[in-house]
Design brief:
2 copies of one chain form a homodimer. By secondary structure, chain A is of the alpha+beta class. Chain A folds into 2 domains: 3-107, Aminotransferase class 4, branched-chain amino acid transferase, N-terminal domain (D-amino Acid Aminotransferase, Chain A, domain 1, 2-Layer Sandwich), CATH 3.30.470; 114-270, D-amino Acid Aminotransferase, Chain A, domain 2. Chain A is built from 8 helices and 16 strands. Chain A has helices spanning 18-22, 40-53, 60-74, 114-118, 145-151, 200-211, 223-228, 256-270, and strands spanning 3-5, 8-9, 12-14, 25-33, 36-37, 77-84, 101-107, 121-125, 159-165, 171-174, 178-183, 186-190, 216-219, 231-236, 240-247, 250-251. The two termini of chain A are 25 Å apart. At the A-B interface, β3, α1, β6, β7 and α5 of A face β3, α1, β6, β7 and α5 of B. β3 of chain A pairs antiparallel with β3 of chain B.
């Protein structure tokens, strides 16, 4: 795995980095095709929003320039961007002089079975719940133990993703995806004001659906709501859209809305 | 800041380390005096409990040997032990072959004003709340953005610590300390089943108080309960015990129980 730290080829980081000490930072995972990072503007916007909420003074022009240069060298693959608050002595207090570190990592394109997109996937129902923390909700920050524990609940590849609820039992998202439902022709996705990651593909699909005149609803949903949906799919900015066929006892079929949004996602990622 | 990685002097770590990627690991902060890490058995026990809950296969004998050797070389200071799930490719799934990394860092003894212990401290009332996550409660894990954001709320040194409540409004702990109250002669401390760090000094003081025949109560407490307490103090395994004199509008005096436990803490740390 090739990587840069602050624009220079490097595969190590100071042990005093606050990304390690406290998970004090953010990340983005971008698909790179033909040397171009896809949905870059949306990824950058979310990252900058996170930086603002965490009081992390990122040089966005510098990061953009580095990411474009890194992606050109990559060609095809997955680009992970990590931004941390930099190196600092012990203690939670933020040193205003600490320079944020920009880490870029290249990984190969993931080898998902083509049936995931073509036919659909089964979701594992995770016992692990997402804690409700409005101050961090929506951010793709480096505090990801909930996802690590949730992902450790299953190893059988018949489950392509896991469904996560919050501690109050609301349906929220997949472990590494966002969740959509189609209910009476309306495109629905869980609100992420208390927990969850506000995914770039989620935002893009909501915007595209609205542009197509589709009704969209961002709200709280229960497992019963999910079971009653006409169509269900998961999405992220690497694989696009996967129809969901089962979760627990519930069964769905890949429907027309899912297929339409899947084509849109594919065009955005492959174009 | 001197450091070892896996028993060898090193100040860098692979950028692919899961401690950085996901905060996938745990830490301990130990006082070292005369080359001896204090309360080592309790620190190690908590670390191993955390490793079990995070499915992290730590070689405890090896870590113990390294920590003792590192502390001997340190003399006096603060030893931070970080254990991460090791280096791994992209993705939340745990690689059962990934070897956990052991990181030891030496820092100088903190220069707290002597008035903190002798007279007492004022607590800042943090707006940031602790999310309720039973799966991680009690652990000193590397997902510490809540503490980073809470600590960023004040910079005036007249506040030595910050008080944190959970999202339901229960009083939980300090940003880097545990909290005790004395109510009608009974030693009380918040239950940490939903959030918070189950501190080593907290466990030690509870055990010592019980051995002295003192009644102890570990339960849920509100800000009103806190305001009504006869004595309040914070503790951790580096500074011992600080009496709390104020928090918001509430006022307390350093009382006899606080002073007795402060002496006990000092003996444990200085002996």
């Amino acid at each position: 795995m090739h990587s840069w730290v602050d624009g220079v080829s490097a595969d190590v980081l100071a042990v005093s980095n606050r990304g390690l000490a406290y998970g004090d930072g953010l990340f983005e995972t971008l698909l790179v095709r033909g040397g171009r990072p896809r949905l870059f503007e949306r990824h950058l916007a979310r990252l900058l929003d996170g930086c603002q909420r965490l009081h992390l003074p990122l040089d966005s022009a510098l990061l953009t320039e580095e990411a474009q240069r890194f992606a050109t060298a990559m060609g095809d693959g997955v680009l992970k961007v990590i931004v941390t608050r930099g190196d600092a002595p012990r203690g939670y207090a933020i040193d205003p002089l600490a320079a944020p570190r920009r880490i870029l990592q290249a990984a190969p394109l993931p080898a998902y079975p083509s049936a995931h997109a073509e036919e659909g996937v089964a979701l594992f129902q995770c016992a692990m719940r997402l804690a409700e923390q409005p101050a961090l909700a929506g951010l793709k920050h480096l505090n990801r133990l909930e996802q690590v524990l949730a992902r450790s609940e299953w190893s059988d590849p018949r489950w392509a993703e896991g469904l996560m609820c919050d501690t109050s039992g609301r349906v929220i998202e997949g472990v590494y995806s966002n969740l959509f439902m189609v209910c009476d022709g309306r495109l629905c996705t869980p609100a992420l004001a208390r927990c969850g990651v506000a995914g770039v593909m989620r935002a893009e699909l909501l915007a595209q659906a609205q542009a197509l005149g589709m009704e969209t609803l961002v709200a709280d949903f229960s497992l019963d709501d999910l079971a009653c949906a006409d169509e269900v799919f998961v999405c992220n900015s690497v694989y696009g859209v996967w129809p969901v066929l089962t979760c627990g006892a519930a069964r769905w079929q890949a429907g027309a809305v899912t297929r339409k949004l899947q084509r849109i996602a594919r065009e955005l990622l492959d174009a």
